[in-house]
# Entry
Amino acid sequence: VEIRKYYNKYYVPNNMALIMSGDINYDDLIKKIDKNFSYMVSKPLALYDPAPEKPLTQIQKVDIYGPSAENLYIAYRGYAQNTRQSLLLDLIGSILSNGKAGLMDININKQQKMLRANAGYNSMKDYGVFILSGSPKAGQTLEEAQKLLLEQVDLLKKGEFDESLIKATVANIKLAELQGYDNNDVRADATMNAFIQNRGTEWDKTLASTDAMAKVTKKEIVDFANQFFINNYAVLLKHKGEDKSIMKVEKPTITAVKTNANEVSPFTKTIISSPIKPIAPKFLDYKKDLNFGKAGIADVIAVQNTENGIFRMGYRFEMGSYNYKLLPYAAQYLAFLSTDKYSAEDISKAFYNLACNYNINVGTEVTTVSLSGLQENFDKAVALLEDVLANCKPNEKALEDLKGRLLKSRENAKLNKSSILGGLMSYAQYGADNPFNYGLSNDEIKNMKSSDLIYLLHNLTNYKHTITYFGPKALDAFSADIAKVHALGKDFTPAAPMKKFVYTTTDSNKVYFADYDMVQAEIRWVRNAGLYDPTNAAKIGLFNNYFGGGMGSIVFQTIRESKALAYSTFAVYSSPNSKDKENSMVAYVGTQADKMNEAVAGMNELLTVLPESDKSFDLSKN
# Structure
């Protein structure tokens, strides 16, 4: 009854919004909206008006215990959306932590004083929350990590930060907005949030907030920080240990529910029977849609961006950690290195001031050096990136700190149930010689040498790679520009052979257990299923829709909805990411430990005998 009252009170036409973004004929759309929704009649609506929260006057501490790794959060109550205070806190969040040049980035992350540290502000309708968070490194207590985080707030309150951070932050926010509003989901979400927060009445403030931020002075930030950051925060300390306060209940009897997933409601029938214009698929034509050229001996693939002034460039290498185990560690090491011209801190600040981002992503088989930002800063950003790669210098202290963080991260991974489950999956598919285990041992990490890592970085662009570019410049102009700064020899250096793994063959059922202290049980089934065949793509998609890939599937409806044996479940025929790898049949049940036996039996039954439902099969096709 109360649910129905709530529905009737708030689910009324004058409390709704239709939000669409995309390739739409708006003149035609508004007529359809009027035709199909004009029957709705406005109803009395009393909007929710909460009582103001009581002021927080002291520090509140919460201790949580569990088997996973330690971390901490410090939270301050903020202000409502579109207020001056929230705008200042947004800006302060970036001054403290922006991934490159914030106080925490330079003073903690760059110096590796913690495993990680960051800060940020989340503004909501009535209040906001400003959060400092982090994870301690090996041998560091949560209290020591908390002290480090609060020290950065003290520096802010004293005004010990570069005023240029304000201008750079605004430039980076504008860049993020340009990139984000290219995406229809982002546009729709922004509109939806504006409706939720103020019914769209302050949309002009939302759009003008970045320009308003540009006018903020350092003095205003310091004055506000001293008023806001006082001893009235909440601190949450997550400890590794046993929670003594867990309460248990008796397991209830569960009766299977008859589901109606194979039934079609009148509403669904109306949608399915509605006439629609067939959508012609538009496939990428590599000969027409991509432009191919050369920059020295490197191939160039370019597409001109005619929408805005943003560029994205990459150096793509067909090699990765399967070729060089040290390569991912070299990429991490680079973040802490200086050159003859710049310190590591100066490099981070320079990229932030240019509103440009660079990243080295080392995969198992592919490595990408990517650079993106405003085209007006392209030349400076590329020159800086090339200087960093070619002239980075060893830093022995940074390497020792990195080794410590890597070893601590490994210890934390042993406490992470998802990481453990991933290791079991890899072992099941490949045996003892598997991708999960293929990496440096702890002893090998301890014995890593700067000279080996620096050699990989200095010689990275000597290996064969393709240059990709999406930006305002045409192919010829870009190729000419990049050739000036991206110096290449006459021939590429051949890469070391790539490590290959052998798939296991399954001739009998095998079970692998990993002990983990939790009240849940996570179970996966996996079987290798032969090499990829593109002619099976449509059948695989249909099978996954029907059997176990969605909420209406046989697996979900049987295991979760009918028998209540899982909080999450699926079963899919998974295709690999390259044609020389095998497909796999994968199933999963996440459940309570006391339901494990029933859940395993239920999934085994479905995997052994495929239930047939003509209605569900037809729905899966649609």
User: Anything to note?
Assistant: The first strand starts at residue 60 and ends at 66. The CA atoms of residues 72 and 237 lie 5 Å apart. The chain has 23 helices and 14 strands.
